[in-house]
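Ticket #4471: structure output looks truncated?

Reporter: J.K.
Steps to reproduce: submitted the chain below (132 residues) through the standard prediction queue, then opened the result file.
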Amino acid sequence: MDPVTIATIASGAITALAPFFKRGGEKLADKIAEEGFAERGKIWETVKGLFVEEDLTTLKLFEENPENVETQAELRGELKHLLKAKPEVAKELEELLMTLPVSQVNQSSINIIGNDNTAIKDVSGSTININR
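Returned output as attached by the reporter:
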């Protein structure tokens, strides 16, 4: 699996999981029971399973404070490294991310305004508006 895809999967997992943790160490399982987010529970279990033999410090820091940008970046880096070593898990995680409803997935929007603009490439899942 190519590095860009792995980076996208790692970023997608962190984006999908961050809303589930609140300050004060609320556990994901409690949130799943309250709000019924089974898909994200599977994503969390898959991510957590990758860290079985690794140092769990970053994972625990993310769980305690998912809004911390530095912790997210550190976890993203570790996750990319682990997914590169286990492409079968990367594929599984990618498939799990695809099960999230569209309204729950971070979407991008690009607006191009002006004359003679040309869109070179459409990005899957994005919206490109050209206003002339």
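Triage note (M.O.): checked the attachment and the full token line is present. Confidence is low (pLDDT under 50) at residues 32-36, 103-112, 117-122.
Status: closed, working as intended.
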